Amino acid sequence: MKSLDKAAWRSQLRAQRREQPFPAAGATLAKVALAWLESLRTNDGGLAGSPLSVGTSVCAYLSIGSEPDTGELLATLTAAGYATYVPVCEPDFHMAWTRWTPGVPMVRSTLAPVMEPVGKRFSFAELSSVEAILLPALAVDGDGVRLGQGGGYYDRFLAGLTAEAGSKAGSKSVPLAAVVHEHEFFPNISLPHDDLDAPVTDVLTPAGHRRLGKQS
Ligand SMILES: Nc1nc2c(c(=O)[nH]1)N(C=O)[C@@H](CNc1ccc(C(=O)N[C@@H](CCC(=O)O)C(=O)O)cc1)CN2
Ligand SMILES: Nc1ncnc2c1ncn2[C@@H]1O[C@H](COP(=O)(O)OP(=O)(O)OP(=O)(O)O)[C@@H](O)[C@H]1O
User: Fold this and answer.
1) Has domain 6-17+26-215 been given CATH number 1.10.579.10?
2) Less Cβ crowding at N or C end of the chain, within 10 Å?
3) Using one digit for the tens of pLDDT, what is the confidence trace for 48-87?
4) Whole-model pTM?
């Protein structure tokens, strides 16, 4: 029943993405993302404006089709000094990470309809100082429930992340921001979800950043 709800939501949201032309908002989204990352550093001891530490990383992704365009976001974060990583699909819905830089050669994944940089693949644990993870989504609600494309790639990845963080005493959790078009953020509706869905902490749209869930 619950997965039927998810399927119905997905087909509605995909139809809306196909049928509605969206104004190009890549530059605005890039500004929103950079300002949010900067604010994380401000809240973490007044570091805003100071140079990034060498090796500070962000996990993001390369948008496809009618997803909000992340091309400029990736370029902006890289130019600001972040080491920027994007996911690579692996068998059994697992994900590895690879470095994105402007002009990096790319190939189409054999496992999902996405482009991926050619280059060394890293496990998340191999990445140093990940400041935040930006995730693709079809929709997100006010509690941080994220509806993705339905592969379960990110849910599996996040489950591993939580297990790993839980095993390290005092480890700080990484902020998780779903990226959607503004009308795909549903602050007052509860999206269908199950026990395997890992909630996100934030949402980014071209209209701005919002903190989600009980921690806000
Ligand atoms: N840009 C992007 N990269 C990603 C994901 C994603 O959702 N978006 N993934 C998340 O797990 C993983 C790949 N899995 C995917 C599984 C299904 C579809 C998919 O069905 N896409 C739609 C088109 C989407 C659109 O145009 O808005 C399709 O092909 O109909 C995409 C990615 C990792 N990389
Ligand atoms: N931690 C997990 N371990 C094993 N299977 C999982 C896990 N998380 C999700 N799944 C399975 O993956 C499938 C897709 O899950 P779901 O519909 O929540 O995907 P999604 O979050 O929309 O997709 P994505 O994360 O790829 O964007 C479901 O069959 C679900 O049971």
Assistant:
1) no
2) N
3) 667 788 789 999 999 999 999 999 999 999 999 999 999 9
4) 0.94
